[in-house]
## 1
Amino acid sequence: MNANQNASAIPSATSDRVVIDVDRDVWTKGLQLNIVQLDDNNSGWGYRLAGPKYNGSSKNLLRRELDERDVKEIRTKLDAVFPVPGTLSPFVEQSLIKGAVANALDSHRDDTDLATRITNAVVAALAEARSTSGPNTGP
């Protein structure tokens, strides 16, 4: 914020509306791609993903409001490559479950309460993996 701006001039991005905008910078003629959380006045703050920095001369070419399905699909793609620390990618989680079930079946072959033991083994394996996980890789 510069000396000519005040806090009340900053839009309040409290809405649950998120858009992806494609703009054209009038000075450079470059395309700009950004994601923005809009307020009730269709203003907001966002993040420029590509293109020249915004200088106030941009004209909007395309605006796409994201819905729940869009967000779920985007999050799935991002989480597969950049998982949140403390979470597991679906591939890693599935592999851990398969391994835990196989180990439980093998080690508790004669147990009459096999389902409980398998469940406990899976829960323990996932808890251990989640507590020690960092960035995960997998297809």
## 2
Amino acid sequence: MLPHLTYADAIHTALTDAEMAPDTLTVNAPAGKIEMTILLQWNDVTLRWSSEAGWRHEAAHSSGPLPLDHFAAPAAITTTAALLRQGQQPVTHHKRWDAAQFVDRAISSWTSTRLRGATLTVTDRRRSRFARVLRRRLVSDTNQ
């Protein structure tokens, strides 16, 4: 299970309770990357959370980083989405989600595990490929 899925679920629940469920909710951890994302889309607004960069938005009237805590409370996300969908600018929210520390730790653990595995795999492949090429060159040079 992706460690940020509980955060996405809490946000989706808050938006649904406010009758603002997004048209699309995507929770992702692309292969080969350590970044995790949450994408909330309505026909006129997109909110994107990244484990690396925090919250951003795209709307017809504005786009860019959002003045929210990295793990903003779902109520803050709901308020922000409502303002953006009404064509207004978002306001600053410092309220952090109650379970942020647990998800933050889970993400750190998952990322370090994934990073160690990816690094070893890439390093092993590069060394093996390099060793094969080097051996061929050495054999080729000695045969000439």
## 3
Amino acid sequence: MADPHLGGAQFWVHGHSGRLQTAHLWRTEVIGYYLRLKAEGPNEAWLHYAPPTIVTPHTRLTSVLIEMVTLGGARVDKVHVWAGARQLVLEDDLGLSSDKGEATHLDEEGLDFGRFEIKVNDPPPVRTGVAVSLLIVAKARLDAVAISAVGLSLTTE
């Protein structure tokens, strides 16, 4: 647990903990230190994460963090953040991609993974647990995304 007097902290959850909303036309693989979603054809699906969240009277969400690599035409197109039933962040048409080309064996040290930060303008207050939803889009069969971690940056000042 982070000290609420530190001013800000990042809270992460491992890529393995992601939950695919609809598995139709997706192959889900837990491989070592990451979760890989491989498309069976052109497709899109929501992938949900629930990072730990500290809640104080002054907690605000400042950014969403994703450590991932994309293969082929796969991308993360939308990032939505929810606090209970209240939507905190709606970022569409992001097209986040690190396009590493064809599917391959990823580096055992995690060096293939890039960190993407989606900064939140006018940071909203956080009063409950937070969920991060990622819309994964594939253009063709065998496009893939591998996610090693998803996190939040929160401030408590």
## 4
Amino acid sequence: MNILILGKSLHFLSVIKNRFPRENIVVVNWREIVNSEPLKIQFDLVFICGYDYSSYLTTYHEYFLVNIKRPYYYIAKNINKNTKVVYICTRIEDVQRTFSRYYYAKISLVNLLKKKFLNLYIIEIDTLVDKNKLLVRSDMFTKLIMHILINLKIAKTTHYEDVDKLIFESTSNSFFSSKIRGQFLLYKRTGFIDKLLRLFLG
């Protein structure tokens, strides 16, 4: 079996490679999509789990290119529409607008993929924790605030030990598809501010 992983999230890579230790796995770095050569392999299974976190501080144009436009065209060009595609996404809310760059990118991309691929499965993952340890790339202050928000049940979590089950035992490919509108996405911000905007404003 040939497997493509688009994105280099170490936590998800570990789970996928543990499940398929003997399969041919190709990993494409999210940030290197623009420079990647066309794929010459017919893939049986595709995992999408990327996001360019540095794009919080870039222009809106560059943020849109690296997280929505380039990944979509790369996938659409290289992957057969009948291939099983697993999109590891954030928690999807029934909202029509968002102030979060992260959320807007995730939902915009999944809406595009839904129109293209017949076998698209969306796996919703909240903030990852492992035995109360946050599995996020951030400084100590941000982690402290996130712990407080989690304890107040404002921020939701997914336990790392449950990720394998969520990815490989999910049989649903349903998705509430809506036209998501971005608010104030032109403005640069840190990832922490973007998270707060999503939690409190949507």
